[in-house]
Specification:
alpha+beta
Length: 307
């Protein structure tokens, strides 16, 4: 059982930095303080690990620790590191030769993925509510209905993809990542038998972040009235980074104050939603997640020693 805040102070970096990551195809990516690692099990059963430093100045600059700005960094992580490591994991899982982690293919994939997500989940609900907007007398109600459509679309999408066999395995690796991070933050031994006893839920999960993006979008757009369609489209596009940054700050604050009864209650929807995006991992999956975390911890320690 995960007891947040009951951590071993002797674990390096525990109080200064929160480790986290994401599931990839047959593996897990962990982002550290100055390094990242992705561990993937190949068709022969071996664990292939790639590590690299986070060399961009945005990761090491003091500006990157500013409230709201750090939320934008998290979005950058999700888009860039996430898609790059997904490409790497797909090649390893299929037994193919490793491709470049960057380049036109990577950036093209990021651009297409971002455009598709924005079109479907931000502009789609706006145009859907536009079909009945002439029958809605209240601008507030119009914006709320748009937000509820967005929420239903997100929940429906997450629920539907959970039936795809390959996605089920990714969700199981997502559970392995959470269990491993929970065990580490609790100061427990990083052994599969120990890590397996921890929960697959985590307050700082990206699933909870997505839910908060949708909720905050409802609140923000509800205050903007009902200007002409073009201005409404522009507002949805331009405010995405702001909404993402606010959602990140909420997740970070609530995770740090989860002992508060009110905050704990507010966390429950995000934790409940994680039941759709996580599955119980097997021991082999836990081994992969542990390997990724251990490599990041070792790389961060080595980097700090040489600095």
């Amino acid at each position: 059982m995960y007891n947040q805040g009951n951590c071993n102070e002797g674990v390096k970096g525990l109080n200064e930095f929160h480790y986290g990551g994401q599931a990839v195809i047959e593996g897990v990516m962990i982002r550290g303080q100055k390094n990242m690692a992705v561990a993937v099990r190949d068709p022969t059963g071996e664990i292939v690990v790639h590590t690299e430093p986070l060399t961009a100045k945005i990761y090491t600059s003091p500006i990157g620790k500013w409230p709201l700005v750090r939320g934008l960094i998290m979005l950058w992580d999700t888009l860039v590191l996430g898609i790059r490591t997904l490409m790497f994991s797909a090649n390893v899982a299929l037994g193919e030769e490793e491709v470049e982690f960057s380049g036109p293919i990577a950036w093209g994939t990021i651009a297409i993925s971002l455009a598709a997500a924005v079109a479907i989940f931000f502009l789609g609900p706006l145009f859907l509510v536009g079909t009945i907007d002439r029958f809605i007398t209240s601008s507030l109600l119009s914006n709320v209905i748009e937000g509820l459509i967005r929420l239903v679309m997100l929940l429906g999408y997450i629920f539907a993809i959970g039936f795809v066999p390959d996605i089920k395995r990714v969700f199981a690796y997502h559970g392995a990542e959470h269990k491993t991070i929970n065990a580490y933050e609790d100061g427990a031994s990083l052994e599969p038998a120990v890590v397996s006893t921890y929960t697959t839920a985590h307050a700082r999960c990206g699933t909870a972040f997505l839910l908060m993006v949708v909720v905050i979008a409802i609140l923000v757009f509800a205050l903007m009235g009902r200007p002409p369609l073009l201005l409404r489209v522009l507002s949805r596009l331009l405010l995405i980074p702001v909404i993402g940054a606010l959602a990140y700050e909420y997740i970070k604050f609530s995770a740090a104050h989860s002992a508060n009864p009110l905050i704990s209650l507010m966390l429950k929807p995000g934790l409940a939603l994680q039941r759709l995006t996580t599955r119980e991992p097997d021991e082999a999956m836990l081994e992969v997640a542990i390997t990724a975390l251990e490599r990041v911890l070792a790389a961060d320690e080595a980097t700090e020693t040489t600095d």
